[in-house]
């Protein structure tokens, strides 16, 4: 079978073989190192071979019990046990043959080796000798062994070499998600304990049964002089009882060694128990402590929070909020509702799929995202984080910075506002409602305090993550702002009316990109003023308007400023064209004779008296508006010249004005100074 097909099938099944012992491709590998094994070569990851391994483990468990028993209690073979031994040895002999056709994993090249010669050499230089010795029949082994080793059962002890298969099985089961780790580990500890007790009991009976003076043995003191004539079951139970009491305690004194041989074995067994007891206690501690340590850390955290509140004289309400939040967090972690560490360790694709499955249907119904693209919704859902809040906990505080906004999943929250120093409930949010979105989208402090009424689950969406996603979907950003404005109109709340009017004015002035003001906030520019040569250039943040830039420059250079120009002399009339790192020159306004003008009221358009009636004020107002806003003064002059032929502009014609407009310069000859 193709190795890649096997691994793919095992992966689909979710088996522990594919994830715990399968071959992982190297970094950057485009395919598996080997695609197909040679003919008659068995893959160690083949399902049929895994079944064969499990069957052999059952035979190893039989061997682990019968080998010490035959060695300790039997002096000659019993027919039923001999037949079973032959059958078991036959299966292990078959496994030896299969191993010569079993591909092995080379830890240096990280590939499956399927060359028969390499497989044979690898097996011959490792475990072949021990495997052959442990399958030799007992009668044949007694005949070829030296006289001191011809005792029945002695050779069978070598078959305990097969226990390595049980250890490998438990290692795989511990990594298999289909089996509970606690019970697998407990079963392994139990098997180790039973095997140690069984083996020690058989050995301790052996020291008494084959001692040269049967009257000076521990078992004679327990069962009497005719202990050899009693049933083998009674002798076995008595030996296991002694072994178990010695393992768990130092004994009760009813059974104790009598001769020196028994004392020597007893000393060795006690040393062995020290190590075994440490192994058992260590493993049980690892299984039990995680549950109790989690509770202990929770109690320590609660105690620390209480001490902090008491030490700093915090109000009872704040203290109760702290403790309630910690208790709820412990509960959600214990019940598996929120596993942040586990989720963070997963790839982004899996986390996005989980969020999409849990929350997409809810986010799709939120008013703010009506009409947006499915792609934007999927990206937003991937950035949400679920959080639980106990009753009467503040999620958002009024006037705090708008860093996040929330979608209510379950529960209920109140939106509160301060009125004459008293908190008043504005309205109650329910499932699917938003909290804090006005502050995030309108870039202003939060308007309300959001407080839970009962246990609530909310989806938190970070402001920066939200804006970054919307920047990649400009059309959806416009839809979101329109949805927000429509929602504010429908609320008809006195608090939100001011926000609505301000937002609509900004849209009317052409600031349709309200979702992206951060691009200016992070831009830095260098400003200088030629009239203030003694003042060094300054590196400042770029504000949201040219007027704000001129006001900042006026404070820095202590001079009235009216124009923003690039370093090559081009006048700038739109802040959107300024980029991060630009060098800007701020200039002031002067009359034709070089006098500095610090009041816009001293400037008036020069018009014939015949045309000033009814027109001069309007014209002046328009011109002053354009001049003060530092926008479109030349467009106004051009439109004014085109609209009337009876206006006289000193020595300037329409063409001259058009030329001046292109060069972004207006001479002060078109104006006159008056007292």
What would you say this structure looks like, in words?
One of its GO terms (cellular component) is monoatomic ion channel complex. Mean pLDDT is 77; it is low at 6-19, 517-521 and 599-675. Helix 8 runs antiparallel to helix 9. The chain starts with a helix and ends with a strand. Helix content is 53%, strand content 11%. It is elongated, with a radius of gyration of 45 Å. The protein folds into 5 domains: 37-178; 180-293, Orthogonal Bundle (Helix Hairpins); 302-337; 347-514, Jelly Rolls, CATH 2.60.120; 524-587, Roll (Ubiquitin-like (UB roll)), CATH 3.10.20. The strands form 5 sheets. The protein has a 4-stranded antiparallel β-sheet. A 4-stranded antiparallel β-sheet has the order 4-9-6-7, with no helix packed on it. Strands 12-11-14-13 form a 4-stranded mixed β-sheet. By secondary structure, the protein is an alpha+beta fold. The longest helix has 52 residues, at 260-311.
